[in-house]
TrEMBL record:
Membrane topology classification: Multi-pass membrane protein
Descriptive protein name: Heavy metal translocating P-type ATPase
Domain HMA: 67-133
Major location category of this protein: membrane
PANTHER family: ATP7, ISOFORM B, P-TYPE CU(+) TRANSPORTER
Cross-referenced SUPFAM superfamilies: Calcium ATPase, transduction domain A, Calcium ATPase, transmembrane domain M, HAD-like, HMA, heavy metal-associated domain
Lineage, broadest ranks: Archaea, Methanobacteriati, Methanobacteriota, Stenosarchaea group, Halobacteria
GO MF: ATP binding; ATP hydrolysis activity; copper ion binding; P-type divalent copper transporter activity
Classification via Pfam families: E1-E2_ATPase, HMA, Hydrolase
Organism: Haloarcula argentinensis
Length: 811
């Protein structure tokens, strides 16, 4: 048996073309070969395709038997902490790999449960001032971090005031020549001013300065000096110079510089942290809404016992009371209730469900009690969403990788620049304090933090907005690269269409008999067309036996009559009698874009059953929204080419690959990648490999684990129009990142020369440095896309949380 030239799959009836060498399994593979043949010379062998996929796989490798811990990390000070936390985790025996993210303050650790557990990993990461904890403590942790930051900011302002008062009353006037010089150096004034300043400044350095000094130590330990190093050196330089100046009889102490710089940095860090945590609110809300326990009903006595969710088994019956969340996915076996699924599906109104209906873990009962039977997967949709939100992806992608490399060099550069500035001022004949303060200004005014957070915070805000719009960003790369897509591939069935077959027409001498015969055979088949025919036919008592399945047909004995059902092309006119009206019905079905299925027995085709996979109402609008002069829109389908005219005739669709076998989709997408960055949009039903093989994958309305694993973004609702929103979000995110980087780079390019020239004093430098970071933070915080037509703020999010977060369990 020959194999396909493109995908290497075995083929019985090869397709050939005079214009290109080789044999192909389907029209799709042949079309891709034509596209590639018209472009550059590339290697499309199976080995080359798979090597490329493996080389570009950026997900964490999870060995067999290993588990993954998702931890929130308190105390992350900057991006340097990412590398340090990863090193701390990977030093532990039993840890395979770790990844940390400063933007989301999370760590993902793959470990061997036989060697180490999650608590031990959290303890290991809690060294040197960090605090690691799991999802169950997330909401409390976010609140405590914000509250502690607020406390430190107020404390910074309070502690700074006595220093400023002493300077305003006794030291600043001397600089203006208001008091005689001897006034400051009498024993009474000395005891009243300088000793309180020394003691108070020392306490402030110890209290407020600890996070900065710890951050500097951590960054130096991992060999990546950061902003904390610059601030620590600047503060210590001002403080130590002031001590030396006082004890050597100098007249220019700069304790105010050391204190005010620390206070401004503390307040700025709190504002930055508060804004950043707002972007993590969705994750905390979902985490806080998880259910940990359930009431299991005893099969005999109907008594209940409270058990951990992990101990639930398929078939267990769980009692759920009004106001509680459904513990796990399953179906109702007793009772009727209105169920609120807003936090999971986005459906605003509660849905009335009764016995036999499926329910999602995490949904809320608004009235009545029900009994739910645990499904075969014994999982909760809510828990899966939480895990997806906690899944840490590398933040050092795309432009951030370049920025990180630059930031590593930037801090040593500023240190050298500060030393050169101080030396230059001193060599030019200025006194030591002027030279030192010029160097301190250079250290303080520079802002590598704004460069470091420009990309991560913009991505975090984009992820927040996407989640608010019921889309999960599983890989931040999609936000940076989606706008560069040259080819956008749509899988037709289930994506551009509803994926639900419906009976349209039955043609034959006796339509009722044709439908009954077809349904009797199709009840043994699992094909979607078979399900549509079976659902449309009335119940039957006909005996069915000897079911057989061929390439494109199925057959069975129905009341001792062999009935054959299948694709009209499978019935050869030499072997079967095909009436003229049947041929006309087939032609009409293809012209109208429906699926004709022939039904035959006793040597003749007796009728045609026509079903339709209805296109989504807004599919054409969606395609138009993302159509661009520099993009090719491609549709993949296994349907006959005659049934794809509706999509092929759309002005935005460039290519339709019809008759594509499911296993060929992956290789077709690989071929399209040679034309540029390729984005695949599918529902995961039979296109998960294609989603994974594309440069970027978007899964629409998919509940399959394969699709979630393969995709870079998942649309949770059954909304195709969410796809243009993802493209818009990616475009705005890239623009926001550019704005942040231009500001951060431009700021440093302007203020560093001003600091070197002495125009900017240390105090002004501290204020400017804080403002620079806050501008980047506020710019990133701005909502990128509307939610339900409005740009929602933090208060809206909290209100939604209150409405949809009742107690998880109450006895």
């Amino acid at each position: 048996m020959s194999t396909c030239t493109l995908c290497d799959l075995p083929i019985e009836d090869p397709i050939t073309d005079d214009d290109i060498a080789g044999e192909f399994c389907c029209r799709g593979c042949l079309e891709v070969a034509h596209l590639v043949d018209n472009g550059e010379d590339v290697d499309l062998s199976v080995a080359a395709v798979r090597d490329r996929v493996e080389a570009e796989d950026s997900r964490l490798d999870v060995p067999e038997g290993a588990e993954t811990a998702y931890l929130s990390i308190d105390g992350m000070h900057c991006q340097t902490c990412e590398g340090f936390i990863e090193l701390l985790a990977e030093e532990e025996e039993g840890v395979h790999e770790a990844r940390a993210s400063y933007a989301t303050e999370m760590a993902q650790v793959v470990y061997d449960p036989d060697c180490i557990n999650r608590n031990a990993i959290a303890a290991a990461l809690s060294r040197l001032g960090y605090r690691a904890h799991g999802p169950d403590e997330e909401n409390d942790s976010l609140r405590s971090r914000v509250e502690f930051g607020k406390y430190r900011s107020v404390l910074a302002a309070v502690l700074m005031m006595p220093v400023l008062i002493l300077y305003v009353l006794f030291i600043y006037p001397v600089y203006l020549g208001i008091y005689p010089e001897s006034f400051l150096y009498g024993s009474t004034v000395e005891a009243m001013v300088f000793w309180p300043l020394i003691v108070w400044s020392t306490l402030i350095l110890i209290g407020l300065g600890y996070p900065v000094f710890r951050g500097a130590y951590v960054s130096l330990k991992v060999g990546r000096p950061n902003m904390d190093v610059l601030i620590a050196i600047a503060v210590l330089a001002a403080y130590l110079y002031s001590l030396v100046a006082y004890f050597t009889g100098g007249r220019d102490p700069y304790f105010d510089v050391a204190v005010m710089v620390l206070a401004i940095v503390t307040i700025g860090n709190h504002l930055e942290s508060r804004i950043k945590h707002a972007a993590l609110g969705n994750r905390a809300d979902l985490t806080d809404s998880r259910v940990d326990k359930a009431r299991r009903l005893d099969d005999d006595s109907e008594a209940t016992e409270t058990i951990e969710i992990a101990k639930c088994e398929p078939g267990d019956r769980l009692l759920v009371k009004p106001g509680e969340r459904v513990p796990v996915d399953g179906h109702i076996v007793d009772g009727t209730a209105a169920i609120d699924e807003a936090l999971i599906t986005g459906e605003s109104l509660p849905q009335r469900k009764s016995e036999g209906d499926s329910v999602l873990g995490g949904s809320i009962l608004t009235d009545n009690a029900i009994v739910v039977e645990v499904g075969p997967e014994k999982t909760s949709t809510m828990d899966r969403l939480v895990e997806l939100l906690w899944n840490v992806k590398s933040s050092a992608t795309g432009v951030q990788h370049i920025v990180n490399r630059f930031a590593v060099l930037f801090v040593p550069f500023v240190l050298g620049l500060a030393a050169l500035t101080a030396t230059g001022w001193f060599v030019l004949g200025n006194d030591p304090n002027t030279a030192i303060m010029a160097g301190v200004s250079v250290l303080v005014v520079s802002c590598p933090c704004s460069l470091g957070i420009a990309t991560p915070l913009a991505l975090a805000a984009a992820t927040r907005d996407a989640t608010d719009n019921r889309t999960l960003i599983l890989n931040e790369t999609v936000l940076e690269r989606l706008d560069d897509s040259s080819v956008i591939v749509f899988d037709k069935t289930g994506t551009l269409t509803t994926g639900e077959m419906e009976l349209v027409d039955v043609v034959g001498d006796d339509p009722d008999e044709v439908l009954a015969m077809a349904a009797a055979v199709e009840r043994r088949s699992s094909h979607p067309i078979a399900a549509a025919i079976d659902d449309a036919a009335p119940p039957t008592t006909r005996s069915v036996s000897d079911f057989k399945s061929a390439d494109r047909t199925v057959s069975a004995l129905v009341d001792d009559t062999r009935v054959v059902i299948g694709h009209p092309d499978s019935f050869d006119a030499d072997a079967w009698t095909i009436p003229t009206e049947i041929e006309a019905a087939v032609t009409h079905a293809y012209e109208s874009g429906t699926h004709p299925t022939a039904v035959a027995w006793e040597g003749a085709v007796r009728g045609i059953v026509t079903v339709q996979d209805t296109p989504r109402e807004n599919w054409d609008h969606v395609v138009s929204e993302i159509t661009d002069a520099n993009r090719d829109i491609v549709v993949l389908t296994g349907d006959d080419e005659r049934m794809t005219e509706t999509f092929a005739n759309h002005p935005g669709v460039d290519h339709v690959f019809a008759g594509v076998r499911p296993e060929s989709k992956e290789v077709i997408v690989q071929g399209l990648r040679e034309r540029g960055t390729t984005t695949m949009v599918g529902d995961g039903t039979n296109d998960a490999p294609a989603l994974a093989s594309a440069d970027l994958g978007i899964a629409v309305s998919s509940g399959t684990d394969l699709a979630i694993e393969a995709a870079d973004a998942v649309v949770l609702d059954d909304r195709l129009d969410a796809v243009p929103e993802v493209f818009e979000l990616a475009s705005v995110t890239r623009s926001r990142i550019k704005q942040n980087l231009i500001w951060a780079a431009g700021y440093n390019a302007i203020v560093l020369p001003l600091a070197m020239s002495g125009v900017i004093t240390p105090l002004i430098a501290a204020v400017m440095m804080a403002i620079s970071s806050l501008i980047v933070v506020f710019n990133s915080k701005r909502r990128l896309i509307p939610v339900n037509g409005d740009y929602l703020g933090e208060s809206d999010s909290s209100e939604r949380t209150e409405r949809t977060s009742p107690p998880a369990h109450s006895d």
